[in-house]
Amino acid sequence: MAAQAVRVETGWRTAPGTPDVDASALLLLGSGKVRNDGDFVFYNQPSHSSGAVRHEGKRTVGGATTDTLAVDLARVEPAIDRVVLAASADGGTFGRVSGLYVRVLDAANGAELARFDSSDATVETAFLLGELYRRQGAWKFRAVGQGYGSGLEGLATDFGISVDEPQQPHAAPQPAPRVTTPPAPQYPQPQQPTLAAPMAPPMAPPVPPVPPAPPAPPVTQPVRLTKVTLTKEAPSVSLTKQGGTSGAMRVNLNWEVRKQFKGWGSKLGRAVANHSDLDLDLCALYELTDGRKGVVQALGNAFGALHQPPFMQLDGDDRTGAVATGENLTINLDHKAQLRRVLIFVTIYEGARSFADLHATVTLQPQHGAPIDFSLDECTVPSTVCALALITNTGNDLTVQREARYLVPQRGVSPQRTIDHAYGWGMNWTPGRK
């Protein structure tokens, strides 16, 4: 493989009832095990300490979704023998996932270097799809296609990862069977012989010093595979308790048209007929600890800034639904001490009269911590503005509260002024345009 850096793309077709699929990678020694839990890259631990492997996240276009890992082969440490490429199904088995594949692309020009299509899955909940391995100083790709019935946890623990998962009450632990090919045999490490002490001064040449052990990634706590879903019954989560109070937190808004006057819509606002011009805007009201208040939104080009107030930024404005990742807002939690509260909301700029016609999904992905997601699918009023989530800093805790609050602006009152009034922000508003 001539490429110095590659992108590993796991893809599948989405349809009602299809489980969510997550890509992951394990960096293994020649023994077939990780050095420690830092050698596992996945949605809750998206970057390896060496910078060699990074989880880039998902993209959905039409009815197809991909989850991508970036691998800089030149930065893979010499101690690492291979990088295993895996996928796990959340909420079902791979027998319900169609069109599953993994392919390796040259990061420089996008050329496809290798591809493996999996078509015979049944009850598996995790797969080893392939691996990148060293041979004679070069990197190569090998398809594997080994399935697990024990999910991501079973796959990870097989390679030496310690998983910190809460025990389910009233359920005896059951070992999940391996579904397909058994794992490759693990060979013991060679042992140094024990030498008896010499009876006379040694005449043999001196023993060379033992070479230093290869550097290992920093020791980490056991990994958590949990995802957090906020509901009406459990509407809030502490980022402090989740360990997600530093780094960048990405807020993603994705949507689909649920019903229309003609036909049906598809993912990410790629609607037809009367909703072809659907435009949702992800926005945020903020209040800093020094009393300053403001809004981050595409309207008026108020995109914000990450490294200076307000420490949050929109990545752009998806005005047609053609952007595969929806709309995204990034919040710099390294400056959480300067954030008092942040209200994330969404407005319908054009293309629909109400959220009642739409199904939106919101995901908050802290750089350190479990993904937090919830859906917006219970609107029963002619609402054009919806409060999504309220992030509050009390000084001792940073919490995310699911709002899912649909508001109906009065005639002549903007959605922004409506959301401001409902949450007591107290700002002055003037007309704006894109």
UniProtKB/TrEMBL annotation:
Domain of life of the organism encoding this protein: Bacteria
Residue numbers spanned by region Disordered: 163-205
Domain TerD: from-to ranges: 4-159
Compositional bias ranges of the Pro residues kind: 172-191
InterPro entries, A to Z: Stress/Tellurium_Resist, Tellurite_resistance_TerA, TerD
Database matches in Pfam families: TerD (PF02342)
Cross-referenced PANTHER family: CAMP-BINDING PROTEIN 1-RELATED, GENERAL STRESS PROTEIN 16U
Family note: Belongs to the CAPAB/TerDEXZ family.
Protein name in the entry: TerD domain-containing protein
Annotated source species: Streptomyces drozdowiczii
Lineage of the species this protein comes from: Bacteria, Bacillati, Actinomycetota, Actinomycetes, Kitasatosporales
